[in-house]
Amino acid sequence: MFMLLQKESWKTVMTLAYQSLGVVYGELSTSPLYVYKSAFAEDIHHSESNEEIFGVLSFVFWTLTLIPLLKYVFIVLRADDNGEGGTFALYTLLCRHARVSTLPNGQLADEELYEYRRDEFGSGSRDIGLSLKSTLEKHKILQKGLLVLALLGTCMVIGDGVLTPAISVFSAVSGLELSMSKEHHQYVEVPFACIILVLLFCLQHYGTHRLGFLFAPIVITWLLCISTIGIYNIFHWNPQVFQALSPYYMYKFLKKTKIQGWMSLGGILLCITGSEAMYADLGHFSQLSIKMAFTFVVYPSLILAYMGQAAYLSKHHILETDYRIGFYVSVPEKIRWPVLGIAILAAVVGSQAIITGTFSIIKQCSALGCFPRVKITHTSPTNKHGQIYIPEINWTLMLLCLAVTIGFRDTKHISNAAGLAVITVMLVTTCLMSLVMVLCWRKSVFLALGFMFFFGSIEILYFSASLIKFREGAWVPVALSCIFLVIMFVWHYGTIKKYEFDVQNKVSINWLLGLGPTLGIMRVRGIGLIHTELVSGIPAIFSHFVTNLPAIAEFIRTERADATDSNHDVREDFDNDGRMSVVGTASANLEGGIRMCEDENGFSSELQEIAVSIASPRPRKRVRFVVPESPQINTGVRDELRELMEAREAGNSRGPTNALSFPQASTLEVGMVYLV
């Protein structure tokens, strides 16, 4: 920890830890709203012996201790991929250390760009580690299976991003049931929850930095509130509740409740919803800030809150209705309404963690060619590269979340769905983390197997309890995952074919320079940049561009002219399918050409071609394109040229050129249809 503090100042760490409370831990902090209610929804009777309530508390305590604290804080958070976290980050980390990527970028030039070198194993685990690495690299079926596993976890995170906001907001507004009948409450709850959800997603464009400072005071107030109420309930109702921290009560609980107790584990599982968000949101903050916030603030507050609820319920065995075993019944009546207001605000914040985590994971998938390109907006004023916002994903999540909220209208079915999504992500993380230990960290294979067996056995127990509720809502994350898996696989297949085409059809710089004089290419002042995944060679799209579209403007200007007109200074050659392939003569002496004018002591010259992504060497000057009002140009041609210039000055470009701060007037997006 001291070495990490040398890289990050205390001020930076504490600021990020403060922000992480508002972004990362909102979901985990609001879990006391619905855990006990969900756990006792499986026909478990709250008896005078308190074995049921103490058993649930024991499960909650040890689950919180082993999964979020031990697994994620002390182990998984260390496995970052250049500061990024999440299920897909583990996959990309494996791809850097072994040739397990299905994308055929295993050329020597590609490997030299990798952030991590593929060092050999140490003597301790050389034989087994090298054998595992060699097996994965040789068998394509294993590589595809690894990709499927990573994408499955990613899709479940997206599904969690749909379900978590719904259950958080629903549980918060459930406090209204204490002041009205259950029938009236149902009519108020759904519209109120939908309004809150719409407002939540509308705030996302402000970015993690602003939302962190805005939401952090709410989460801190909420944690202080539930921990204080917990302490009060412990000492006022039952100080003996500390006995339930013994694992023995878990055994007594399962022995007494049998199959109902096993099924109730799906509700107990919800106490760790948001744990995966700690890892998924790693790119938005830092390891140390996330660890400090959870260990010293979130974890003790949650334990006190759950113990306080159990202490109250241990002295109140007869409840008026079956749905009042939730959080609010344990809140002292005098402060119940203020707590309800804070809970609603905290529930809104609670949805933030998984939403930002979804943004990060989608970004990682898109970078590796497993998701369609989307607009990624960097929101950090201090250039924290991981703090991003993706509009398309944001509004998609909102629509799906509203559909789930209106469709189910209760927390039971939504909690069943959210539980399966959460535990599936954790199982995938455990499997991939075991491989990371061996292939990336060079740890003993037996240590990796011990990690997978210990945490995997716990998660499989919860997974089985969640899967049994497939018909009661758990089918939702499965259906969403199937849809997103199809999208990802189709896009990844196209990415592979495109890359293979580029590799097979790339050309050398000498070939291109040799074609220059025959094509009539005119050199323009500036630098042309082409975005490509190839490390060496010129991609096919550029050769396609220079041989088929050397002068766009001239083509528009002359396409309506008579082909037999001898006054034309431009020679047009057409290939067999009628496309203009070569324009030979420059248009510098032609009237009606397109001029690029530069303001303030600049230059004015006529250009023959519009190049790809030309960045001015002096970006401080403003560049504009002018279509002269020449009588030799008819109205239709002038309108087309003006539209072309407007499109050019608008940029028509997404993330890459914007990220490099190219002037929009100096960029042009060029597409090409790949026949694969």
From TrEMBL:
Single Gene Ontology MF annotation:
potassium ion transmembrane transporter activity
- State its location(s): Cell membrane; Membrane
What are the record keywords, sorted? Ion transport, Membrane, Potassium, Potassium transport, Transmembrane, Transmembrane helix, Transport
For this protein, the record's Pfam families field holds: K_trans
InterPro entries this protein is in?
K+_transporter, K_trans_N
Membrane topology according to the record = Multi-pass membrane protein
Keyword Ion transport assigned: yes
Segments forming domain K+ potassium transporter integral membrane: 16-512
Which NCBIfam families does the entry link to? kup
Give a short account of what the protein does: Potassium transporter.
Q: What's the family?
A: Belongs to the HAK/KUP transporter (TC 2.A.72.3) family.
Q: What is this protein called?
A: Potassium transporter
Please report the organism this UniProt entry assigns to the protein. Ambrosia artemisiifolia (Common ragweed)
